[in-house]
Automatic annotation (TrEMBL):
Lineage: Bacteria, Pseudomonadati, Campylobacterota, Epsilonproteobacteria, Campylobacterales
GO molecular function: copper ion binding; hydrolase activity; S-methyl-5-thioadenosine phosphorylase activity
Reactions this protein catalyses: adenosine + phosphate = alpha-D-ribose 1-phosphate + adenine; adenosine + H2O + H(+) = inosine + NH4(+); inosine + phosphate = alpha-D-ribose 1-phosphate + hypoxanthine; S-methyl-5'-thioadenosine + phosphate = 5-(methylsulfanyl)-alpha-D-ribose 1-phosphate + adenine
Protein name: Laccase domain-containing protein
The keyword Transferase is annotated on this UniProt entry: yes
Keywords for this protein: Hydrolase, Metal-binding, Transferase, Zinc
């Protein structure tokens, strides 16, 4: 969720692994700048609950893509497994744009599948999580 109190503009975007690797948040901020005159440093951003680096196991192909794009720091290797922390990618992107006001809801939806739906924890048959932002 993105809020620009100066221009009174808001945005909502899903930023999972693919979106993060394809810079969906920076692209959203660019679109907000073009549409509303938003400046990254004015934004307040909330990263909602998501699968955490503790649980998000990925394959070597995805790990290589992360490393190639400069996001190796978002990877954790344990035994023969690789785990990805998508929020690490998003935070790097946001900080690189000058966004300082960032709130992260650090709830892993897989670890806390009793509170949140999780595609991976629920064996791919799951509900959905909705985020809503309004401007008054």
């Amino acid at each position: 969720m993105l809020y620009d109190p100066i221009q009174q503009a808001i945005g909502a975007v899903h930023a999972g692994r693919s979106g993060a690797l394809h810079a969906i948040l920076p692209k959203t901020i660019t679109a907000m700048h073009q549409a509303f005159g938003t400046h990254a440093e004015d934004l307040y951003i909330v990263l909602g609950p998501s699968i955490g680096g503790c649980c998000y196991e990925i394959n070597e192909t995805i790990a290589l893509e992360c490393e190639t794009k400069g996001y190796g720091l978002a990877l954790r290797r344990e035994d023969e497994k690789v785990f990805l922390d998508v929020n690490t990618i998003l935070l790097e992107q946001l900080k690189g744009l000058g966004v300082e006001n960032i709130e992260v809801v650090e709830h892993c939806t897989s670890c806390r599948s009793d509170e949140y739906f999780s595609y991976r924890a629920d064996a791919q048959q799951t509900g959905r999580i909705a985020g809503v932002i309004i401007l008054r």
